[in-house]
């Protein structure tokens, strides 16, 4: 066998073990009994130790030196293996294992603190997570920026300076649009009870409507909706609020976008570095375009309205036009995952600034809740009423996912570019969506984005799909046009 063949055989086993670790994480959030938290932390630490040893194996450097790629696919495989190996070798094994153990148990502590609305119960653990992430960032960054080093794990090549500059350009237009919408006539809220099982049945049907393959996945409940896995096992979760069915329905569609990305990757890349989404920004572009540009479009919500009438009876909405406005209702709210498209990126920008300050040491953990509440009041004009609506709402920091939050808005930016290209490629798209047919839209995304997996760099795959480099303008133009029409601006 050649050095390339030896390396890929070794890598295949590493990828398979990584999938097992991911399945442990999925189980922890969905099925694991509460009393198993400490043991699960030990299990996650043990498997991380095995994975770290494989990712830093000295033979990888030798294989990389000797391997000769036969084609662009092989060259891309080597590029990703080299990046992973160089990153892993900078992190001490003991630190990698301790991070895995602490972040595993931290998730349970966060969930209980969130349920009890007690920030003090979580802060000591959060302080430990942040200390470990700063240690990891220092190992990775060398003389560079600590936050950039962490963000590179989720969006290779991105920097806080570039992302911060993009946020600064976006914020004025978002704020102007928000002010105009909130000054317009208000949109009513749903006032009806929607049973849990009926919601879950429709959620499953919505997943199928968007192309989710239940022979290679499943839908479960979780405190914080997420998707997990890749290859031929990509699972999704949702949550149910019986007075707010859109929480369930759009969480499901969002996670289907993530899962369909993984399921849509070329099967030749299975259990290789190319067999995963290329970055979290590109990943979020798929979940956000499924959820918003397709799922919240007036064409699709017209079909959805008729479906809900059949399933739930009269729920107090006069027709599809009013329903589209209710689905896209703009209002300041506490919860990021429930935020409308106008407010959503403002949530992300706030978290970006706070977590960057935490990692850089400019904000102490004991001051975080006050900083959060002050910033939220300034940005949204509403005082946080309880911790589960504030600092404790997101799972990310308990998992150690510092550097992840900016990829949500980056994903929205990519989705704006992809939506513009999609509309040009499928001129009759609204007629199809009005029939509940998403196949042209999801098929275009699968062909132009999803099937490539990690073959291209993140910005490159968006550029190839759209014919030009990504920018924030298409997203901002889309928001202005959509909400201008819905609110008569």
Automatic annotation (TrEMBL):
<keyword id="KW-0121">Carboxypeptidase</keyword>
<keyword id="KW-0479">Metal-binding</keyword>
<dbReference type="GO" id="GO:0004180">
    <property type="term" value="F:carboxypeptidase activity"/>
</dbReference>
<comment type="function">
    <text>Broad specificity carboxypetidase that releases amino acids sequentially from the C-terminus, including neutral, aromatic, polar and basic residues.</text>
</comment>
<dbReference type="Pfam" id="PF02074">
    <property type="entry name" value="Peptidase_M32"/>
</dbReference>
<dbReference type="InterPro" id="IPR001333">
    <property type="entry name" value="Peptidase_M32_Taq"/>
</dbReference>
<comment type="similarity">
    <text>Belongs to the peptidase M32 family.</text>
</comment>
<keyword id="KW-0645">Protease</keyword>
<keyword id="KW-0482">Metalloprotease</keyword>
<keyword id="KW-0378">Hydrolase</keyword>
<protein>
    <recommendedName>
        <fullName>Metal-dependent carboxypeptidase</fullName>
        <ecNumber>3.4.17.19</ecNumber>
    </recommendedName>
</protein>
């Amino acid at each position: 066998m050649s050095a390339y063949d030896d390396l890929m055989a070794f890598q295949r086993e590493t990828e398979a073990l990584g999938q097992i670790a991911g399945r442990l994480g999925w189980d922890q959030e969905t099925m694991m009994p509460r009393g198993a938290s400490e043991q699960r932390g030990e299990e996650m630490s043990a498997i991380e130790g095995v994975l770290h040893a494989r990712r830093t194996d000295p033979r990888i450097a030798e294989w990389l030196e000797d391997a000769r790629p036969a084609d662009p696919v092989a060259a891309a495989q080597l590029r990703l293996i080299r990046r992973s190996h160089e990153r892993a070798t900078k992190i001490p094994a003991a630190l990698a294992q301790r991070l895995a153990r602490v972040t595993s148990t931290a998730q349970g502590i966060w969930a209980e603190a969130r349920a009890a609305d007690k920030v003090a119960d979580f802060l000591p653990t959060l302080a430990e997570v942040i200390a470990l992430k700063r240690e990891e960032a220092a190992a990775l960054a060398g003389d560079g920026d600590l936050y950039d080093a962490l963000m590179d794990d989720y969006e290779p090549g991105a920097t806080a300076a570039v992302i911060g500059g993009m946020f600064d350009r976006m914020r004025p237009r978002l704020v102007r649009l928000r002010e105009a919408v909130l000054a317009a006539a208000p949109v009513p809220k749903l006032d009806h009870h929607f049973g849990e099982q009926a919601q879950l049945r429709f959620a499953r049907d919505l997943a199928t409507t968007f192309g989710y393959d239940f022979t290679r996945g499943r839908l479960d409940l979780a405190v914080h909706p997420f998707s997990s896995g890749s290859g031929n096992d990509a699972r999704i979760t949702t949550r149910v609020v019986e007075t707010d069915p859109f929480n369930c329905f759009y969480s499901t569609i969002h996670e289907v976008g993530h899962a369909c990305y993984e399921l849509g990757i070329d099967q030749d890349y299975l259990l290789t570095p190319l067999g995963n989404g290329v970055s979290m920004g590109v990943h979020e572009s798929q979940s956000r375009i499924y959820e918003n540009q397709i799922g919240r479009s007036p064409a699709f919500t017209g079909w959805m309205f008729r479906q809900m009438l059949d399933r739930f009876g009269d729920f107090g909405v006069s027709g599809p036009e009013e329903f589209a406005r209710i689905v896209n209702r703009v209002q300041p709210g506490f919860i990021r995952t429930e935020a409308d498209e106008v407010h959503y990126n403002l949530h992300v920008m706030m978290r970006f600034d706070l977590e960057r300050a935490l990692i850089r040491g400019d904000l102490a953990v004991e001051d975080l809740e006050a900083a959060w509440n002050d910033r939220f009041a300034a940005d949204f004009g509403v005082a946080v009423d309880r911790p589960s609506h504030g600092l404790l709402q997101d799972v990310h920091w308990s998992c150690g996912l510092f550097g992840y939050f900016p990829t949500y808005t980056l994903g929205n930016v990519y989705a704006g570019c992809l939506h513009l290209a999609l509309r040009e490629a499928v001129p009759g798209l609204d007629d199809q969506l009005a029939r509940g047919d998403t196949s042209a839209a999801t098929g275009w995304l699968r062909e132009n984005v999803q099937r490539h997996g990690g073959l291209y760099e993140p910005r490159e795959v968006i550029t190839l799909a759209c014919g030009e480099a990504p920018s924030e303008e298409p997203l901002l133009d889309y928001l202005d046009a959509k909400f201008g029409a819905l609110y008569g601006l």
